[in-house]
Amino acid sequence: MALIRTTNGRALCILVIMDEYTQECLSMYVARSIKHQDVLDQIYEMFLSRGIPEHIRSDNTPEFTAKPIRKGLENLGVKTLYIEPGSPWEKGYVESFIGKLRDELLNGEIFDTLLEARVLIERWRKEYKRCRPHSSLGYKPPAPEAYEIKNLTQQVVQ
Question: Could you tell me the domains of the chain?
């Protein structure tokens, strides 16, 4: 989870959900605070669009270790894997992603409102996911189908 502030000093939290296999950022939920129900809502939304995974890896923070989250995932047969505190290498893709988010967007933007932050962060996420090549993926974006469709469309138009 990343933390930022609006111009009036109020905190904003960013919940980042990534697919470890494809390195695709599936969701970035931006809110003033994030409770366990917000986490469950985001996870269930991912399940509806992407299917139910075998396991979920997360931090050992209260939002992720709350009993309702563990119970909800257990009911669906999803195993929970927790990252040891002080072990950022266990979540390398997310740490790298959040670092790029800070360098490329958050450090250069001043957000006046929650809505503005949501819109700009989502725009950045979509570009990162669909357009930007990643060296670890053979210089393809994490969502290659969007990239390939875009190239195909350009070829047809030319």
Answer: 2-157 (3.30.420.10)
Q: Is the confidence at residue 39, as pLDDT, over 60?
A: yes
* Helix/strand number for the chain, H first, E second: 6, 5
pLDDT tens sequence across 122-131? 999 988 877 7
With 0-12 / 13-18 / 19 or more C-beta atoms within 10 angstroms meaning exposed / middle / buried, residue 121 is buried
Mean pLDDT confidence for 56-66 = 77
The owner of tokens 């399940």 is 47
Pairing between β-strand 2-5 and β-strand 55-58 as defined by DSSP bridges: unpaired
Residue 144 near residue 150 (C-beta atoms within 8 A): no
